[in-house]
Amino acid sequence: MQIRHESSRKETAQMNTEELRENFLIETLFTPNQIEWVYSHYDRVLTGGAMPLERTIALETHDALKAAYFLDRRELGIINVGGKGRIMADGVMFELDKLGCLYLGKGTQNVIFSSQNVENPARFFLLSSPAHHTYPNRAFTKEEASPVNLGAVETANQRTIYKYIHEGGIQSCQLVMGLTVLQTGSVWNTMPAHTHDRRMEAYCYFDVPENHGVLHLMGEPTQTRHLWVANHQAILSPPWSIHSGCGTSSYSFIWGMAGENKDFTDMDLLPIPALR
User: Which residues bind Zn(2+) (predicted)?
Assistant: First the structure.
């Protein structure tokens, strides 16, 4: 488990490319037969990935959590961006196709990840936050997420949004999770940009074609910075930072948040001419 402390606005504005990548980019999410974790001090959110191949992977606790088991005082959101997979949670089996989501609540003790096909393994993106209450474990397919089509060809942001863990979907203590699929020919996400001081956010980019990338924009609205992001990489976004991107091709991304509330629409919108 890698631990990352928060960076102030002033620190971030003075960072070079390598420093920005070290603090805000997660380059390796999916390693065969193990779980990768990054513990961020932004809202104490854990971002990670699990890719089981020929054997199963158990969700284990870490010393940094000082917990009897991983979900002793936490909740966990899981979205599969790979092949068909299975998750056993306290003896109950959940099957997740690509873009399927599973929420595991506080108190779930035994969690096992597996793939149905080693040649096309599951890739489970993981997001965990502290929890004060136990909500039931629940899975959603992408069809159950009430897909919404937004954007336009003219603004290169035609997209389908799938909301899984939120006030109107799977219940949680503070996690909010879903994903966005950009249509062919669309490359912009989250523009006009926004911030939300009430919570941090993580992006996981996937289905980025080979030899392509996403130029992710971050930083204060008047001190923007950029990071080139590849397929299956993630970004940690502080509450005060914008989080937007433009790809060299269409792509998809998971968005996950934790903080003061679970209102998906809680955004402080920024007019494009105000960005610097």
Answer: 194, 196, 201, 243
